[in-house]
């Protein structure tokens, strides 16, 4: 791919016990899913199920099919263990 400028992006995931963060270069038009696949995050963290986990760029939720831009930080979010509203209700009752 001579002459094609690559985009420098980052991928971040924080699991319960492990986390990973890394940078990589991808061609323009690469999707969030493509960045995750190229970074091999799923191979290092088999607990990630992209069908259940939300993803975002710089803290803003997005779709797996959204394209990334230069300097983007793709984040993979874990599913919530408890509904925050229900957890607060239980704390108040105690």
Q: What does it look like?
A:
With 94 residues, this protein is an alpha+beta fold. The chain contains 3 helices and 5 strands, in the order ββααβββα. The chain has helices at 32-38, 41-44, 84-93; strands at 7-14, 19-26, 54-57, 60-62, 73-77. Strands 2-1-5-3-4 form a 5-stranded mixed β-sheet, covered by helices on one side. The N and C termini lie far apart (62 Å).
Brief descriptors of the model:
single chain, 94 residues, alpha+beta, five-stranded mixed β-sheet, 5 strands
Please provide a brief summary of the model:
With 94 residues, the chain is an alpha+beta fold. The protein has helices spanning 32-38, 41-44, 84-93, and strands at 7-14, 19-26, 54-57, 60-62, 73-77.
State the helix count.
Answer: 3
Q: Strand share of the residues?
A: 25-35%
Number of strands: 5
Query: Could you tell me how far the N terminus lies from the C terminus, measured between alpha carbons in angstroms?
Result: 62 Å
Cα-based radius of gyration, to the nearest Å: 16 Å
Strand order of the largest sheet: 2-1-5-3-4
The class by helix and strand makeup works out as alpha+beta
Query: SSE string, helix = H, strand = E?
Result: EEHHEEEH
Oligomer designation: single chain
Sequence-ordered SSE layout with sheet pairings:
Layout: E1 7-14, E2 19-26, H1 32-38, H2 41-44, E3 54-57, E4 60-62, E5 73-77, H3 84-93
Parallel strand pairs: 1-5
Antiparallel strand pairs: 1-2, 3-4, 3-5
């Amino acid at each position: 791919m001579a002459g094609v400028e690559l985009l420098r992006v980052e991928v971040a995931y924080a699991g319960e016990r492990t986390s990973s963060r890394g940078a990589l270069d991808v061609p323009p038009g690469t999707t969030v899913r493509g960045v995750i696949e190229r970074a091999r995050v799923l191979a290092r963290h088999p607990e990630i199920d992209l069908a259940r986990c939300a993803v975002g760029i710089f803290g803003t939720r997005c779709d797996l099919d959204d394209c990334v831009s230069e300097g983007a930080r793709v984040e993979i979010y874990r599913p919530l263990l408890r509904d925050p509203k229900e957890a607060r209700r239980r704390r108040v009752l105690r």
